[in-house]
Amino acid sequence: MLNKSTVILGAGFTGLSAGYLLSKKGYNVTIIEQLPHPGGIGSEIVDRGNRYEMGAHLFHCPDKEIMEEIKALVGQELIKINRTIKINFNGKYYDFPLKLHEILINLPFTVVTKAVFSFILYKAKSIFSKNKNKNSEDVLINSYGRVLYEIFFKSYIEHVWGILPNQFSPKFAQQRIPNFNILEIFSKIKKYIYFKIIENKPVDIENYTEKVEGDLYSTREGFSGIAKIIANKILDNGGIIIYNSRVEKIELGEDNKIHSIDYLKKNIRNRIKLDGLISTIPISNMVKMVKPKIKNPIIIQSLDKIKYRSLVFVGFIVKGKKKLPADLTYYRNLSFNRLTDLTSIGINQKLENTKTIIAEITCDIFDEVWQNDSLAKKLVFDDIEKEDLFEIKNITHSHVFRLKHAYPIYLKGFDKSLDYIHQYLNSIPNVITAGRQGNFQYINSHIAIRYGYNAANKIIKYYN
Ligand SMILES: Cc1cc2nc3c(=O)[nH]c(=O)nc-3n(C[C@H](O)[C@H](O)[C@H](O)COP(=O)(O)OP(=O)(O)OC[C@H]3O[C@@H](n4cnc5c(N)ncnc54)[C@H](O)[C@@H]3O)c2cc1C
Fold first, then answer.
1. How far, in Å, is the centroid of ligand 1 from the Cα of 182?
2. Which of 86, 89, 84, 85 is nearest to 153 (CA)?
3. Do the domain assignments include residue 445?
4. In this predicted model, which residue has the larger pLDDT, 56 or 200?
């Protein structure tokens, strides 16, 4: 069966780990990637010798097997990182995750009283009510009360996502919004229980909820260093990675199996025949590439419900001793919603006394900032100066780069649409979709790696 050829679409963490496992087991594997480098969302962007990454990336992994594998693969290059996070709220910086009591003592007494009553009222209601949460607003109000919801979540979510919480599926709030540390003791108990559970149980990848717990890792080359090492291992194992190549067509035969894919490289169309396909590119894009075209109206409508929030990154190098309040700092009322100091989370600096900073602007691809580099820089630099974070005259280099499929938007009813799409794909025996884009799921890189391994094992099972 080793003569079977697998094509993998995308060289992000999912595609790389699937390619690594298949090539290690002796299977023919070819990865097609539109970017000039491996890593996908976790990759490196170089401009005139200056290195940037797509925001704050650190490897954390409660999945013991994956952690051991990464340690063995990356070896000495893997370094432990301690990072600090703060959130700016009404002009003050607070530790993150937020400690509710710290914020409450800074609010007017009347607001606090109302907040406490509202919290108790909705908690009691949610215990006795059998009504299910219909959207993310319901989840947040039932968890925190209406007053805290209005103060902390409503406008923030609209600022970052461009949509009010009542437009989101309940799953969005359940997966994305971290719990407040109402009492430290409670949080410690939760942590203890959580680690007890994961020692005995594998991480549930289908119902994954973002949690950053345990040790954090990167490399001196930054997070993308991990992706580069895995990519090199695939090449050592005889696998092929074709960069700068955009997949455009997926040929479905009359036997309802995928036979080949077409990709464009330097405007030249190429075709690869295959026995099995693992797709890690955005699921809706992938299904739209299948020829002959899908005619089922339910699938066509479902594809339109799969939407993403995009990110514009402004990376800059700043000289001097001035530091950000934390390694990762979140803002609610500025053009960017997060600043990351890449220098303090691992990446080696070319010049001494400089820092590499990344500002993240969440947006829609129809917003002007998505198209316009000068506007993105102006917005970020004006806010940086207004907040007295750095002086613009000390910025020695800056570069704007983008991520179209940054965050899946869990609109109300998205899960049903996704189910229809998966049902269609499951009817084709030699294709597997996996990963953050392939499953339209908020996941971190260790889950992407687990998905990649699962996809590789599934395709091997199909061959045998
Ligand atoms: C801002 C941000 C910060 C994050 N921070 C962390 C963190 O600290 N720790 C952590 O573990 N995770 C983090 N994550 C999540 C992590 O980056 C992802 O879970 C992981 O990288 C997903 O890998 P993937 O391979 O599934 O998807 P991707 O990385 O998106 O890979 C898909 C690949 O497919 C390629 N592709 C798409 N279309 C085509 C086409 N038509 N032809 C050819 N190639 C194509 C893309 O270029 C891409 O390389 C973060 C995510 C974001 C957005």
1. 33
2. 89
3. yes
4. 56
pLDDT band at 351 (very low <50, low <70, confident <90, very high): low
7 Cα to the center of ligand 1, angstroms = 18
Burial of 56 (0-12, 13-18, 19+ CB in 10 A): buried
End-to-end CA distance of the chain: 7
What is the Cα–Cα distance from 351 to 355, expressed in whole angstroms?
Answer: 9
Ligand 1: list residues with CB < 6 Å. 9-15, 32-35, 40-42, 54-59, 246-247, 280-281, 406, 435-437, 443-446, 448
Whether the link from the prior residue into 97 is cis, omega within 30° of 0, is: yes
DSSP code string of 320-388: SS---SSSEEE-SSSS-SEEEEGGGGTPPPSSTTEEEEEEEEEE-TTSHHHH-HHHHHHHHHHHHHHTT
As a whole number of angstroms, the distance between CA 225 and CA 16 comes to: 13
Q: Measure the CA–CA gap between 226 and 222, rounded to whole angstroms.
A: 8
State the residue range of the domain holding 426.
Answer: 5-39+221-303+415-463
Q: Same domain, yes or no, for 129 and 253?
A: no
3-state secondary structure labels for all residues of 389-450: CCCHHHEEEEEEEEEEEEEEECECCHHHHHHHHHHHHHCCCCEEECHHHHCCCCCCHHHHHH
Lowest-pLDDT range, 158-172, 230-244, 246-260, 427-441? 158-172
What pTM value is reported for the model? Answer: 0.90
- 408 CB-contact burial (10 Å; exposed 0-12 / middle 13-18 / buried 19+): buried
Q: How many domains does the chain have?
A: 2
CA of 40 relative to ligand 1 center, distance in Å: 4
Q: Give CA torsion, residues 70, 73, 76, 79, to 10 deg.
A: -20
Question: Which contiguous run of DSSP H or E holds residue 19?
Answer: helix 13-24
Query: Where is the domain boundary, 152, 180, 208?
Result: 180
